[in-house]
Every structure is written in C-alpha cells, then in structure tokens.
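Why show two proteins at once? Because comparison is the fastest way to build intuition. When a single record is shown, students tend to memorize it. When two are placed side by side, the eye starts asking what differs. So, the first record is below.
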Amino acid sequence: MAKLWQKENQQTDAIIEQFTIGNDPVYDLQLARYDVMGSLAHITMLEHVGLLPSDELEPLCLELKNILDTIEDGTFVIEEGMEDVHSQIEYLLTQKLGDLGKKIHAGRSRNDQVLVDLKLFMRAEIMEIADAVEDLFDLLLAKSEAHKNDLLPGYTHLQIAMPSSFGLWFGAYAECLVEDAELLESAFRLANKNPLGSGAGYGSSFPLDRKLTTILLGFEAPHVNVVNAQMSRGKTELYVLNAIAQLATTLSRLAMDVCLYNSQNFGFIELPSSLTTGSSIMPHKKNPDVAELLRGKSNKLKAAPNQLQLLMSNLPSGYHREFQLTKEILMPAIDEIKDCLEITHYMISNMKVKSDLLKDSKYDLLFSVEEVNKLVVQGMPFREAYVQVGKMIEAGEFNGSSREINHTHLGSIGNLGLSEIQSQKDAVWNRFGFEKVEDAIEDLLS
C-alpha cells in the first residue's frame, strides 16, 4: 500500500518498513479519535480561509464523524500495510469521497498532525488522571476527618518519635497529592498549546488561520513560533512523565507505609483478605501483595522521565524519527499511573484502622516531648527541661503516664487544617480550566 510520502515507482524493503514502523500502529490506535478532531478543525479552517470550497466541507466533516463513530465503537482498525493512523483515516476518506478525501492534507504535514494528536491525547489523559487524583484526594480527606482522634506512633529514622494520628497521616497524603497536581497542571498547560499549522516545522505559504484552529480545538493558546512548536515534541511528553513520576513517588511511599503498618511488628491497620495473599508453606500468612505491587509499579514509573531524556539526548531542532518512540514510553506510563491510582483508592477504602494503639507501654517514650513542653509551660527553660526528662528516661523513671496531648497549631494533631487543604486543592483544579476544553470539543463534534 502506498505511503503518504511515497513517490511513484519508489519501493521500501520489507525489513526496513518493519523496522521503521515498529509498534507505531498499535499506539496510534489511541490517537485515532484525536486525529479526527484535528482534521475537523483543520478543514474548517481551510474552508474559512478559502482553501476548501464551502460545498466540500460538509461531506468531509460528515465522513470524518462516521469514522469517529467506528473509533468510539471499537471497530476502527489500522489495516495491514498501513503506516499510521493518519494514513488510515485519509485512506478511508478517499475510499468514500475520492479525490476530495485527499484535500484534508493541504497546509499540513504529518509532523504537525501527530503533534496535535499527541497534544489532544495528553490533554485528555491528564484530565482523566486529575479526576482519579481528585477521587483519591476526597477519600483521603474524608478518612482524615473520620480518624482524627485515632492516635498513631510517629517515626523518625524508623524509631518512635512523637504522637501522630491517622487523621494526620491520611491528611498528609491528601495535601501531598495537591502539590503533585501542581506539576500535573504545568503539564496540562503545555499540552494545551496548539501546534497545528507549524507543518514540518517551518510553517506554510498558505494563509492558515492558526488562531481559529486554536479556538476550535479548545487550546489555551498556539505555539507561536513554528520551530518551537516542533521542539515541543518530546518536551510535552517529558512534562507529563515528570508529573506521573511525582504522583508515583507519593503512591510508592503510601504503599510502603501500608506494608509496614500491616505487618505484625507494627499492627496499625488490617487489610481484608481481598487485598492479601497466602503462602504455599506458612498457613498464617496474609501478604500485602497489592501494596507491594503498587510500590513496585510506582517505583518503575519513576524511571520513565529518565528514559525519555536519554531518548531525546543531543537532538538538534527539527523533526527526527526518534520522536516516534516517545509513544512507547508515554502511553504505557499513563495506563500504569491510572491503574495505580485506582488500586490505591480501593486499598484505602477497604483497610481497617486500629484504635487505642498508644495505650501500649512500648510507646511510653512517644510522650517525652510532651513532658518537656509541660515543664516549659511551668516556667523551666527548654534546655533544662530537656535534660531533666532525658535523665528520667536514662534512669528508667519515665513511663509517659500522662497521655494527654494538646496540639492546637495549624496542621497538627489537634488542628488538621482540612479546610485549608481543601482550598488549596480547589485552587489548583480551578486553574486547569477543563470546562473550556470540554465545551470546545463538544462544539467541534456537534
């Protein structure tokens, strides 16, 4: 089957074709709906600037929407011998509309075509990831409020340190997700810029209206400089992967906490049987396999930005075929982080928190700082109070008999600041501006 770039009587060796195409058609299936969207915006613009007759726009739009229907119902395929999704869609158009189908490529290169597909894809995936993060945030904040009075040992260097609470623990991860979402929002900003019209990286002599396609596709702004638009290939993916890696870091730490807290030596939480597995030799085992795999998958995701950085090393400006390989790093990472967020939500929803943990005498020393602070309130200088309590501990005379805790400052056990954390989260989500994107795409496809 002839390629879009192929000259007459020019043939490509099968071994070269297989090597250069690789797994691209598999990943391109995920871009199909966005290729249709980009084409709809492009031909609408071509008609607007007089490069496509008005009576030809409607049949092209209608047929593109018919193709979109097959994509949405799962019957769309990239046929054997077809190089990519762009070729398949243009082929289907020409099969239905003849030479009219070939007109959609005027003023466009496959370079800016795949760029806009990827931008739309990443933008949509970020919206899905943000929804999953929001669901997990809401759960963690609710758990924080529900367990604000259930005390928990706090650790430094894996040594008991000071009293904490499950409210503080759940709330910490909720706020951490908000901070992670700041990176996700930065990735969204870059994904939400329009490269369409940059062509092969040097624009076009056609009078393209790039501001119109920006509006039609719901982008926040265009990449102004056409060379820079092409240089965003790989850079946008890196922003997304860095945001994913940061989310994965948070999930990995949470998973490690769950593994520790579930062990008999800690015994702070209980996981249901659905989240654990047994041993083939030890009948007592309830292994936290879900948390361990979550930890492993999350740690694996941290490597994705480095993989992409190495792939992009030492490339000058302009298009290079290595860019095709970015999909093989980006798309699996997106699927993985969504799976990890979903299983984390399930795990947190189903774990059982144990109460009255700090009544155990092994946690007496957790209250040493409280004793120091009590002496300070009575008028003793802090350093003297510290030495006095330290001597009591060394002499075996400190038993932490007073379990009273009086933390009142913002972000402490007695004042979790959940409303402030909620406000921070709301501010970040408001900056995303998802509604504008959704409205534009709905108008484009209507």
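Second record. Ask yourself what differs from the first in the token line.
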Amino acid sequence: MTTYAEQLQALALLYVPKILLAIVTLVAGFWVISWVTRLLTSVLRHRRIDETVVPFLRSIVDVLLKVVLLVSVAGMFGVETTSFVAVLGGATLAIGLALQGSLSHFASGVMVLIFKPYRVGDLVSVAGFTGEVEAVQVFNTVLKTPDNKRIIIPNGAITSGPITNISGQGTIRVDMQFNVAATENLDRVRKAVQAVVANCPFASPTQAADILVNSLETGYTKFDVRVWCNSVHYWDTYYYVQENVKRQFDIQGIKGPKPAMDLTMNNHALV
C-alpha cells in the first residue's frame, strides 16, 4: 500500500500541474479564440463584406484555431503530435485536391467581395460576357445581359482575366458613327447632330459632346459622335441619339451616303 501511495503521489505531482496548466490553457485559449473571431467579424462587416461570407470565414478561423489549441494542449501531456499533424495535413491535402476547383472559385469569390472590383448594379464585361451584375455570390457572379439573359459565371473565370467595369466611374462615353453624303456641308451636319444631343434628356449637361469628322470616303463623309451620360443610361442615350439624328437629317434634308462611281467613256470610230 505504501508503494502504491508513493506511486500515486508521484503521478499526482507529475500530472496535476500539467492538468491544471492544460485547463488554464484551454480556458484562456477559448477566450482568445472567441475574441479573435469577434474581431474578425467586426473587421469584415466594417469592410462591408457580403453577409453570406462573414459566418463562413468566421467558422473556418474558429475551427482552425481550436484545432491548433487542442494539439498544443495534447503536447503538454507528452502526446506525440507529429503523426497526428501529419495525418491531419494529409487529410487536408486530399480534401483540397478533391475540391480544388470549388476552392479556387471560393477564393476568387472572397477576393471579389473584399476588393470589390464591381458591385451589384454595375455594368461589367467579364469572361467574354457583358451585363449588369445581379448578384455576387461566394462561388459565382450572376449577370443580367441587355437581352434579359441570366449568365452565371464562376468567380475563378472572372479573376483569371481582365475585368471591365463599364459603369464603375459613374459616367460613360457613348460612341456612335454617322455617314452622310460627301456633298453635304460639314457645319450643317454638325449643327443638326448638336441639336439632337442638346435635347437628349440623358446626355451630361457638364461634359460637351464631340462631333468630329472621322474620314472622307468615296461618296460619303464619316462622323464620330461621342456623348457623355450617366452609366445607367448608356443604352437610353445610344438609341435616343440614333433615332433622333435620323429624324433631324430627314427634317433638314441631309442626305445619306449613296453608292457612287465615275465612268469615263472614250469615243471610238466604228469601222
């Protein structure tokens, strides 16, 4: 009995401090993890990260920190954690390889939500498609095209190529071209187009439109017309100017281009 008592006392002296230290470490560790996750949530919401992403990121950080804490506590009792870490790393690698496509889209979605190269409502051109951003999700971005099609694009395909945010600057230039007969007076054509732009309800009142001669072709003159407007009124401006320039040309008798050919005939004596 004396021997057992001495062994029990030795074990108590050996493990009780470790148990107490482990308990203190767990309590302090869980408190620190809770504080870190709250801080992360606050930072993400302050950066206006999408609410669907915040809980997901918080849970990932929470689980990873708790795994690290438990492995550290196990090491206090002399448990060999090297093999455990190796197994955990192998399992993580296998899962990562199996889901590498989805994880790539997820990482790209997080980047889009953090850095915000575009927002919901912006007119963008990405991955070969142009449309209004309808939703920015963790794995996909949803576009609504001008012809009312719904395009779902994986975020990985978006971040791997150039992103053109057409409406990101607030104002946008609408470029158009008009051809008139080569015999038409340039100032007369310019005044007719300027009258249409001045009456356009979507054209910017602070940025003057450009009405420029692009080139002199055979039988016609090509004009470049560049009108500034709010990005949400791009197509409204385009179609308004196109239709009303045609009306104005008809009213003022400005002729459009016609195919022309100069023929030179030589008189030859008939034999």
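One difference worth noting in the second protein: The longest helix spans residues 2-46.
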